[in-house]
Amino acid sequence: MSKATLERGINALKEQIDAPTAAFFSSCVHCGLCAQACLFYTETCDPAKTPIHKLEPMRRLWEQEYTLGGRIRKWLGLAKPVTDGELARWSELVYQNCTLCGRCSMVCPVGNDITYMIRKMREGLSAAGHAPDGLIGATTRAVKLGSPMGVTLKALKAQAKHVKEDSGLDIPFDVEGAEYMVLLSSMEVINYPEYLQAIARIFDQTGKTWTISSQAFEATNSGIQIGTSDIAAELVQRVVDAAEKLKVQTVISPECGHAYTAIRWEGPNLIGRPFTFKVQHILEVLDELREQGLLRVEGVEDSRLTFHDPCQLVRRGGVIDPPRNLIKMVVDDFVEMKDHGKMNWCCGAGGGVSAIEEAAEIRLKAFNRKKKQLAKLKVDGLVTACANCRIQIEEGLEENDMDMPVIGLTEMLANHLVEEDTGGGTSS
Amino acid sequence: MKNDPSLLDILRQQGVSRRGFLKFCAATASLMALPPGMAPVIAKALEQARRPSVIWLSFQECTGCTESLTRSHAPTLEGLIFDAISLDYHHTLQAASGTAAEEARKTAMEENRGKYLLVVDGSIPTGNAGYSTIAGISNLDMLKEVAAGAAAIIAVGTCAAFGGLPHASPNPTGAVAVSDIITDKPIVNVSGCPPIPVVITGVLAHFLTFGSLPELDHLGRPMAFYGNNIHDRCYRRPFYERGQFAESFDDEGAKKGWCLYKLGCKGPVTYNACATTKWNNGTSFPIESGHGCLGCSEPNFWDMGGFYNALSEPSKGTGNALGWGVAAGAALGAASGLMARREKDHASRSHQQVTVDDLKREESP
Amino acid sequence: MNIEAVLQWIRGPGLSLSLGIFIFGILLKLLEIFLLGRRKNLAAVRSSGVAAGFRTIFSRSLPPEGNILRRPPFVFIFGYAFHIGLFVVILFLAPHIQVAQSLLGLSWPSLPTPVVDVFAVIALIALMALLWYRLTSPLMKYLTTAQDYLVWALTFIPLLSGYMAYHHLLLPYTWLLAIHIASVELLLVLFPFTKLTHAFTLFISRWYTGMMAGQKGVQS
What we know:
A: alpha/beta; Rossmann fold; four-stranded parallel β-sheet; Cytochrome-c3_hydrogenase_C (chain B)
């Protein structure tokens, strides 16, 4: 069996380097502005955490392999080769100290998409065997068990049973020809089962047909987080196969940031062909239902609330307005954080960071940024749309003795559904 | 020459009053940037000065310098100073010719050895001795011979000072400046094509007064006359500052007297007294008459990229190097880019499927 | 060889040579970037990204939305001051326009020299401030490489020598003009082989970033 080696890592990096990468490396003038946009730098003031610095080995490889000047220097023995030890050292910067949040890419004055390159860098590090154990474990479980957290179909079915007991609504499994196929993240199934019930109630009210595939219900794509396209492609393929088998029109990505990036933006590129179905985030679906007047709510929250933008949803995903449209349906006193929408600050646990045990300390340190934002707003609660953000924020608030409820947006909307004629699962 | 009349005697004979003479001394002092108190000193020295012997050698030149110095429209003090020196040899001006002329030179050299002033106009050909000879003697030999006994040398005109027009590319005669040949005598370069007459008399007055040469700049020119930049002293400078330029010699800008920078004026790199002393009895100077400065008092002014090209313009066509740059850039860029592309494709082909079992290193035994 | 001859070489063959190397290097650089290629995006895009790409090309030159102090004020203020100063000096000093006219046949109105002078001073001060920042900030010290100092000097010397030439400081104008043009030529020669290339490649970077974000429905 083949195992990870430096050569495989270097080879993977060489595959990854493309025209944008070359343009980005050619343009960086070491101005340091990306550091100021990165919460791992702002909360630690450690210059090694400057986003562009996290790519230094890849930059040198590009120079030595893909430029005339670099090749000449290499030939003359003047170039410093990329070593295994170096990649091992960089692993901490690239995995534990980056959530792929993309904020650096928004402020770079020369317009470098640094996050785009970190994603590539992870491709090389994982092939070289320098991915963190936590992510390797999650990825292995995702491939072998179907879920990074080991959530089995049995566990999901048990949750479905609870929903049925609570609301009287059936969770439809493997219904061919349904309009929507719903994906779930393990975190939701384990930590926030309310999501499943919320969805069931909303679809019930709006009269839409939906289903869950028993073959591919997991939305989390650890392959994206660890940065191994081969594995990510395998995980995407499962969803594609299921969606095509059930002939659904739209696959719905759940309240999870990177799951959306994985299936919506990387998915077709990973499997090498466009999808035959549509992919939407649950918030996009809900916003469409709102526009069509199908989503009917009543009552408003009586507390002052704000919204935490999951990075992969807004900055890296383009779902910016839907959450706001939806929140305003049920919240009067809604306030935005100073940096919100595409300029939001990450919770500190995205991009696989939450799966890395060694990153626990830095992750909570990084949360200080969100803590400061929240402290300024003086809100009673926070709404978000990503289970991973939600867990991190809840943990961070607890760590900082801040008492504040963190609510999933879909759940909150479901709580305000107009009750009139929906009782007892009439449409199921 | 023992009973030679003093300079003042001669001036008096020419009808110059003492008042006029003192005025000249004051003007000279001021031109030479000496303190006003020096005027009487100059006057006294000049009054007593004996006619110094001057030998004037003309080599590869056009006589323009001599013309400039002698063809004043009326007798001037500068001209009279010239009358006051003992110009013992000047083959354009002297009456004697042939053997007699050469004899006069020999005599003056012997009688005043170590004391006479040597004035040179014109450049010296080094290519072939036959390019320019006087009485069968090559310019080079004559310069060396006469310079040996001179107290000091005044190189008049840009040809003598820096090589001038004969030196211009491709310099067929191998023309050089006096200072390229004579290195052991004090040399004053009075450059210009032609130089301003008063500069000559000023240097002479300084020599007669102090027995030494005036302070010189890095090109051996008297600081007093060449210390200032034409551009800095130009009355059209405000137009330059405001960005008002004549674009052609007959446009509105030219009529309004705007700056001639774009028409090739070399004022910014030219050091001379034209803008303050002016020409033709203080009438005007080239820029005032509507033409840019040619930079004639500077070395290589003929080769400064064309009289009508702005100073900042490249002096030669850049087409060739640019063409080569484009060709080489395209060729090597394509080669390098394709090499990179091949390397990348090779990496893709050597890609080994990564499975979850490949994420860890081989356990070390 | 005297300074006039040196100046002649610098204005003639020297300029041709450095421009030739400059063009060579830029072409090399651009081809090395573009020939690496890029995989086609197969995802269902929200827009082609073309408009967003062009918007990003321009918008990254502007202060970020909202609070301009969102960026660290020091780098922000002096970064702008330097670049604006530099562009005004390069583009609006009459002698520089003459160069453009003789090389490209293009001409445009110049600014009054004292105005350009003020911008030159601003650019010089800003460059010195940025150098000071590089030398003192722990972050910048960590990131800075020898090449960063090299490109600083390559940019600073032409500005300083041009300023000194204009004001006849220290050396005769002819010398300063020669030094000024020579330093610009050095800048041209090293330009394509250092990160000075950002002046060109940033448009490519902004385009890619803006276009890729635009396809996802984000104006980056």
